[in-house]
Amino acid sequence: MPLKPPPPLDRIKSMIRFAPSRRMVLFAPAALAAACAAPAGPNRTVTDAATARFADSDWRTLTDEQWRARLSPAAFAVLREEDTERPFTSPLNDEHRPGTFVCAGCELALFRSEWKFDSGTGWPSFYDVIADHIGTKTDYLIGYPRTEYHCARCLGHQGHVFPDGPAPTGLRYCNNGVALQFIAA
Ligand SMILES: [Zn+2]
Questions:
Q1: pTM (2 decimals)?
Q2: Tens digit of pLDDT for each residue in 89-132?
C-alpha cells in the first residue's frame, strides 16, 4: 500500500520553517535590543537602587564590541571584565589639582579631588564617593569577600572599598586609575 502523501497544510508548515517568518522578521530587532540591554560580564545581576535609577540609560545598551571600540584594551579589561591594573602605574596617582574624577566609560562624576588621599597602595584612593553614582556588590574573586563598586550608569567596574580609610568616613575607595578620567575644575 503506497504511503499517503502529507496533507497540503503540513507541506506549507514545513516550508515556512525554513523561511524567516513574518513574526521573526518583526520581532528580531526587539529581541536583539533586549539581549544587548543585558550588560555583559560579572555585573549582570546588580540590582541596587543607584544602578536601577540608570536602568534606562543608553550606556547600558552598548555591546562588548562597542565598548572595545571606545576604550583602550587596559580600560576595557578593568571596566568591562573587572581586571585590576598593576599598582603604581596610573598617572592619576600624582593628580592633585582641584577637580572631579569621572568614569572613564561614561563620564559620570564619581569622586571629588578633595576626597583623594595617598593610601600608599599605588592606586588612586578616596575616602568618599558620590554615593548616588555607584553600585556595589560582594565578590570573591581572590578568595575572600570584598565589596566591589562600579559606575551606576554604565556598570563599569571601578574598584573595591575597604573599611581602613581615613576620617571622616573611615573608608578607602581603592580605584583603578585607568577606569577614571580627571576633569580639572
Ligand atoms: Zn560609567
A1: 0.75
A2: 999 999 999 999 999 999 999 999 999 999 999 999 999 999 99
As a whole number, the mean pLDDT across the chain is 82
Active site residue 151: no
Indicate which residue of 103, 106, 151, 174 is catalytic: 174
- If one counts the domains in the chain, the total is 1
DSSP 4: P
Residue 101 structural domain: 44-184
Residue 179 lies in a domain: yes
Residue 8 covered by a domain: no
Q: How far is the CA of 152 from the centre of ligand 1 (A)?
A: 7
Give the confidence band of 45 by pLDDT, cuts at 50, 70, 90: low
How much distance in Å is there from the Cα of 10 to the middle of ligand 1? 52
User: How many angstroms does the Cα of residue 161 sit away from the middle of ligand 1?
Assistant: 17
Q: Is residue 38 part of a domain?
A: no
> What is the CATH classification number for the domain harbouring 159?
2.170.150.20
| Backbone CA torsion sign across 64, 68, 71, 74 | positive
Asked, for residue 5, whether it belongs to a domain, the answer is no
Contact predicate 173/97, CB 8 Å: no
